[in-house]
Automatic annotation (TrEMBL):
Protein kinase domain residues: 91-373
Protein family (similarity comment): Belongs to the protein kinase superfamily.
Organism from which the protein derives: Gossypium schwendimanii (Cotton)
Example GO molecular function: protein serine/threonine kinase activity
GO CC entries: membrane
Membrane disposition: Single-pass type I membrane protein
Name this polypeptide is given: Protein kinase domain-containing protein
InterPro entries on file: Kinase-like_dom_sf, LRK10/LRL21-25-like, Prot_kinase_dom, Protein_kinase_ATP_BS, Ser/Thr_kinase_AS
UniProt: ATP binding residues: K119
């Protein structure tokens, strides 16, 4: 048996040696190697094409969604700009207006001379759903107290929103009593009242005036823009949610909003369901900041009641309502203050069912002070 194996090995070795000396066999081997190499090359190339096709398909899906959106809204859809257009209208991002977690805002000018604010988004979902959500939400609106979206850019990773320009910036620049160089930018009580009224009207439009109800989920001073006449306009719909008007409770949306303004039920469903009342809570917290000229949560407060501003107000309701003025206020101004305080305390009730709708809020703001009663103190 062993001798047979040895003989087989020798025969194979002899055959290999003969093959090397046989030119015809060498040609066959060479051709075989070339064919195998060619097959491997074409297989790899096909895989590369398949991957490229997959990537292009993903890009095409994004573009298809935008085209579908433009077709759906027709002439009502905002203009679509290329990134080169954005760079041109902002003069290569020369004049920066502000910055936030979403990105930066730059001042720009359209070819017709209109000034615009261009928001360049730095954070977004890969498939662009959150970005297109904002475009779709705000494109459904047309109201004096809702900022107008003039256009957008969706070019691969480059995404931008083009809004009408608001000369007085955002509300937060006025209610904390300091401007860019620490100068006072305090507003009169009548102006604050009109701003509060305008924001409530804008919210009522979102909740009741649109065919599809829009919940904003991020009402705060930073997202309220002011035009040259201090007319307020609600902006930044990145966290908004569209829902049917008949729906009273919204399905799980995940915690969304800004700390200090988020309704309790948004992050803990034990308090109740998420609904339009969640925006009412945020509105109430914003009203408190407008009244007090300070953040709702004051980390410098020496006591717990001073740290949480709604509690501080409840503890000082029996004192003159002079929160953010150093001088004695007129009777009319004090009446405005008391009305704003009462409405804000109703809006910030812990349980959604205890809060008024935004329509009721408007009635309270425009009614007489005598018709208002103070709500129970939140637990």
């Amino acid at each position: 048996m062993k001798s047979s194996v040895i003989c087989f090995k020798i025969s194979c070795l002899d055959l290999f040696i003969v093959a090397l000396t046989d030119k015809r066999f060498t040609v066959v081997v060479t051709i075989t190697i070339v064919l195998v190499s060619a097959i491997c090359f074409f297989v790899l190339r096909l895989k590369g094409k398949s991957l490229s096709s997959h990537l292009w398909k993903g890009k095409k899906n994004d573009n298809a969604r935008i085209e579908e959106f433009i077709t759906k809204f027709g002439s009502l859809a905002p203009n679509r700009y290329f990134y080169g257009d954005i760079k041109k209208m902002t003069n290569k991002f020369k004049d920066k207006l502000g910055e936030g977690g979403y990105g930066s805002v730059y001042k720009g000018k359209l070819p017709d001379g209109r000034l615009v604010a261009v928001k360049i988004l730095s954070e977004f979902k890969e498939n662009g759903e959150e970005f297109m959500n904002e475009v779709a939400s705000i494109s459904r609106t047309s109201h004096v107290n809702i900022v107008t979206l003039l256009g957008f850019c969706f070019e691969r990773s480059k995404r931008a929103l083009v809004y009408e320009f608001m000369p007085n910036g955002s509300l937060d620049g006025f209610i904390y009593n300091k401007g860019p160089h620490d100068q006072s930018r305090q507003l009169e009580w009548k102006t604050l009242y009109n701003i509060a009224l305008g924001i409530a009207r804008g919210l009522e439009y979102l909740h009741q005036g649109c065919n599809t109800r829009i919940l904003h989920f991020d009402i705060k001073p930073h997202n309220i823009l002011l035009d040259e006449n201090f007319c307020p306009k609600i902006s930044d719909f990145g966290l908004s949610k569209l829902c049917e008007r008949k729906e009273s409770i919204i399905a799980n949306t995940g915690t969304r909003g800004t700390a200090g303004y988020i309704a309790p039920e948004v992050f803990c469903r034990n308090f109740g369901g998420v609904s339009h009342k969640s925006d009412v809570y945020s509105y109430g917290m914003m009203l408190l900041e407008m009244i007090g000229g300070r953040k709702n949560i004051d980390i410098e407060g020496s006591q717990t009641s001073e740290t949480y501003f709604p509690s501080w107000i409840n503890n000082h309701l029996d004192q003159p309502m002079n929160f953010n003025l150093n001088e004695v206020i007129a009777e009319e101004e004090e009446e405005i203050t008391k009305k704003l305080v009462t409405v804000s305390l109703w809006c910030t009730q812990t349980h959604p069912m205890d809060r008024p709708s935004i329509t009721k809020v408007l009635e309270m703001l425009q009614g007489s002070l005598q018709s208002l009663v103070l709500p129970p103190q939140p637990t």
